[in-house]
Design a protein that fits this description.
single chain; about 140 residues; alpha/beta; Rossmann fold; six-stranded parallel β-sheet; 5 helices; about 20% strand; globular; binds flavin mononucleotide
Length: about 140
């Protein structure tokens, strides 16, 4: 079963990260696919033992509110014991949205791969893409 990398993006930065996470999972020896959040249900994702979630900082340091926030709310009660990699792009903040997201999933009983979310400032650089690949590899081996 392919490891799912479920993401939301407005301008493509988090999608680039998702594609690099997928490449990293494959380097780690597993199959993977990037899935836009509107194309999967929380129930379907909750059937998996491990997966990645990506979302940029939106609003005022929150998840995107039309799709990703309700998706995460629906998922929250079903993630106990799951291994989850979190990532996303941001601009002017300091990563607070990601720290909050990590705490939220840990409080729900999930293990966050690498213990923290991976953030990239605006468009991912080559270093950011390499970090995304490493995250995917760690997820494959988790
Ligand atoms: C409506 C809106 C709200 C945003 N809020 C934040 C924010 O609170 N903190 C921050 O660091 N960046 C914020 N940003 C910047 C985005 O996180 C940044 O542009 C990011 O690269 C977008 O990723 P994407 O290309 O995957 O959509 C916001 C952008 C928009 C359009």
């Amino acid at each position: 079963m392919a490891i799912k990398v479920v993401y939301w993006t407005g301008t493509g930065n988090t999608q680039v990260m998702a594609d690099s996470v997928v490449a990293g999972v494959k380097k780690g020896g597993a199959d993977a696919e990037a899935v836009f959040v509107d194309n999967i249900t929380a129930d379907a994702l909750a059937a998996e033992d491990k997966f990645a979630l990506g979302c940029p900082a939106m609003g005022a340091e929150v998840l995107e509110e039309a799709s990703m926030e309700p998706f995460v709310t629906a998922l929250e009660g079903k993630v106990s014991g799951k291994k989850i990699a979190l990532f996303g792009s941001y601009d002017w903040g300091d990563g607070q949205w990601m720290r909050d997201w990590v705490s939220r999933m840990q409080s729900a009983g999930a293990t966050i791969v690498n213990g923290e979310g991976l953030i990239a400032n605006n468009a991912p650089t080559d270093d950011d893409k390499a970090a995304c690949e490493a995250l995917g590899e760690a997820l494959a081996k988790a």
